[in-house]
Hints:
Layout: E1 3-8, H1 14-24, E2 31-38, E3 41-48, H2 51-56, E4 67-73, E5 88-89, E6 95-103, H3 106-115, H4 127-136, H5 141-151, E7 154-162, E8 165-174, E9 179-182, E10 187-190, E11 202-204, E12 210-214, E13 219-223, E14 234-235, H6 251-257, H7 259-267, H8 286-290, E15 294-299, H9 301-318, E16 322-326, H10 327-330, E17 341-347, H11 353-364, E18 368-373, H12 379-383, E19 386-389, H13 402-421, H14 427-449, H15 452-461, E20 469-473, H16 478-492, E21 496-500, E22 517-522, H17 528-540, E23 544-550, E24 562-566, H18 575-593
Parallel strand pairs: 15-16, 15-17, 17-18, 18-19, 20-21, 20-22, 22-23, 23-24
Antiparallel strand pairs: 1-4, 1-10, 2-3, 2-4, 5-6, 6-7, 7-8, 8-12, 9-10, 9-11, 11-14, 12-13
Helix pairs in contact: 4-5, 7-13, 7-14, 9-13, 9-16, 13-14, 15-18, 16-18
Bound molecules: fructose -6-phosphate (F6R).
Fructose -6-phosphate is lined by residues 300-303, 347-349, 352, 355, 399-400, 486, 490, 607.
Amino acid sequence: MCGIIGYVGTRPCRDILFRGLRKLEYRGYDSAGISIIDGGRFKLLHSVGNLDNLEARLSELDGEGTVGIAHTRWATHGRPSNENAHPHTDCSGRFAIVLNGIVENYLSLRSQLQQEGHEFTSETDAEVVAHLIERAYRGSLRDAVAEAFRQMEGHFTYCAVAVEEPEVIVAVRKETPLVVGLGEGENYVASAIPAFLSETRRVIFPEDAEVVVVTRDSVEITSLAGDTVSRSPQIVDWDEEAAEKAGYETFMLKEIHEQPVALADTLAERVGPDGRVILEGLGLSFEALRSLRQVNIVACGTSYHAGLVGKYALERWARLPVEVEVASEFRYRDPVIGPGSLCLAISQSGETADTLAAMRLAREAGAHVVAVTNIVGSQATREAHGVLFTRAGLEIGVAATKTFLAQVMAMLLLALYVGQERGHLATEDVRGFTEELRRIPGLLRDYLEEGAAGRVEQVARRHTNSRFFLCLGRNISLPVALEGALKLKEISYIPTDAYAAGEMKHGPIALLEEGSPVLVVATDSCVYDKLISNVQEVKARGASVIAVASEGNVGLTDMAEEIFYVPRTHEMLSPLLSVVPLQLFAYYVAKHKGEKVDQPRNLAKTVTVE
Ligand code: F6R
């Protein structure tokens, strides 16, 4: 949450910083600000609301300053306002900082500083950092930043600049992202690579508690104590075009259409010529796989739904008991986990605070932890014993789509792999599934190219005034119903519930009245007949059924007002196709309601706070 960028170089940096913020806007967008050192003082600009508001006022920040820091905020402490927008400065106006994360002990630090005479101008936790630096400064910004860090608790990344050292940015991180971009005669620091991807692909990922001093010609990394740390640059091969909308009206729509590629890339090189699954990097030996006793999946939001798909697959194919839990609950339980447990932590960003905490708990208890993530170099990859990368490419839309599908693909591959290695699946069964998995990207591409979006849009347009949706599914289609409901809630703001279809008569059926729209995931499955009975039950209460069904299914035509047909596949792989019309449905309901689909209210793409 929150995006930060800093630039030090020879070019006037106002527009460079603003362009960087644009690329980070998905991390938060309730206020923003820029601070540039110019003529021995800071020039500061703050604005409330998203970056359009800051852009409209950019010309107020004139000058040729070539060093600056900027921030786009997702409010945690203090409502969105000019006062609470970053950068924050100290009492003397000599230091400015931007921060992402939370300073957990800020109240005690703040009252200490106030007793010493420091005056605060905002309600944020971040402002204490500027005052801590002011208090600690003895002629070295690097040392003052390190000293402030020692006094702070929580998880955060911050960058500081000082008018007395006008050619330097100092940055440090603790459990939240920080990446350094290396240019020619200029350097960057940021929360994420897209912020400077148009300028450089050479990056360094500093570790926690390493103090990074960046000038236009150098990047020096030291431990808190001041010992030199050497970190080699890496080259990122991300496609810059991927960060643009490429002709689509929104990132979310573009990302929905990128799903065939995300699936193909996540599958690539993971199936051998004999059709068996090859997964490297899990850090699990054959013996360790064989002696596994249980799997614990931890994740949040959409990633949790991918974990639920993983449960059905692992139980069926690997015959292991699987628990899936939202990370914020898992971390505060006393879970029964230890040696012999495989903990799968699913997080597209690899930075979600609750998921990271759950991983640590599992690791300390002796479990083998594997991160399933989309981001190379993310915190989750550093804290896990092994990593399974999804390869969905950069996702900007706040509502996850292509990363979800890639996570589902990763879960299916992992379940097949564990089943095959533990001897529960015969080679010909694995081959059958992997051959079918290989067909899916093409099936999905054809489905999208043949006008699926237009058909869903027609139906969605008629539902912009609906007051409520219910989504139903059974078995491996239940996570699909849950994910469809989450998309509707996130971007259309229409209250939506999701239920196991067989559970409906135990309560939620009472919600239904004449015409209530009920979305049912009714693709081919072993529980199809049971599901049809549930559809009859909702019909009998007057519901208007919108079904997702396997192509060629004519049995539903009398029961459903609308049917979104998806290509036929094996039921265990069906979430890879059946969720797509639900993503599109949510998208078009939100669009025709006039909502800002890429920037849903109150949300941020990366949730680095508890
Ligand atoms: C929903 C969505 C969120 C995330 C959740 C976890 O569209 O994007 O629910 O899935 O915040 O994020 P990651 O996967 O980054 O841990």
